[in-house]
Amino acid sequence: MKRAFAPLLMLLGLTALVVLPLAGDNYIIRLATNMLMYSVLGLSWNFIGGYTGYPSFATSAFFGLGAYAGAISQGHGVPMVLAWGIGAVVATSFAGLLGFVLLRLRGHYFAIASLVVAEVLREVVNSATDFTGGGMGLNLPILRIDVDRLAELFYYSMLSLALITLATTVIVSRHRLGFGLRCIQQNEDAANILGVDTTLYKNFAFMLSAVFVGAAGAFYASWVNYIDPTDVFDILLSVQPIVMVLLGGPGTVFGPIIGAVAYLALEEIMLSNLLSFHSGLLGLIIVILIFFLPNGLFGLSWKRLKRWMGISSAEEAA
Fold first, then answer.
1. Rounded distance, CA 32 to CA 17, Å?
2. CATH number, domain at 222?
3. pTM metric for this prediction
4. In terms of Cα–Cα distance, which of 205, 210, 226, 209 is closest to 88?
């Protein structure tokens, strides 16, 4: 029954996203674009944190690198979409090099080391004033098109990136890579003994956690037309994806998307009115999710749905 309803729900959801700009105003489109960007961040973190079990805080580093790579490229006349690709390549290349160093660490040692990366990059960008604009930031070229068309352009662009990220997640979850990453999460030493190339698999997951985030960072730079180090290397960009994945369901395909929707609703309803407690609330949410909702809303919702409808395990397998 679960398998029968899944394609229908996916089709309905995709249809709603495609036609949304026809029914919504610019505020709704902006919220939806934000939700899609959050989905990309959550799905990306899920590769290294959800499947592999490595608590990475490097998301803001990849996002900032992608944003600056895209912004600098556009400033030198590179077409916008190509600049987004450059942002993805720069972030992925950096993750590949960084992974060989950081992924030798485990647990909180890895978490702390990955947390420092964004701060180091922010200081480097602040210092390279001739190249990055330093603390003054960078202005990007403004597209000379109608405001409504511009909103739709960025919305459909982010929708495309989110769908590509989701498709990659589906492929990884069904591939031997996904199996290997789950083995690493369960017991990395045992995975090594069983023949899983843990070094290669971890690095690949780390690069997957960077490629789409880098593209999203470059997209964000084009979207807002201005970036500065404090904005794109913000530590909240590393914490938010973790909250989304834990909220939706770590190590699942659609959990990060559910978490992104739930987080955006929470942000709009509550956190916008409690800005001074924003970081503290995120930390509290993470603690609550770890202890009381380890499988996220995705696991909880289906478990309850089966109980309410009286679906047995045998029926679900059928």
1. 8
2. 1.10.3470
3. 0.87
4. 210
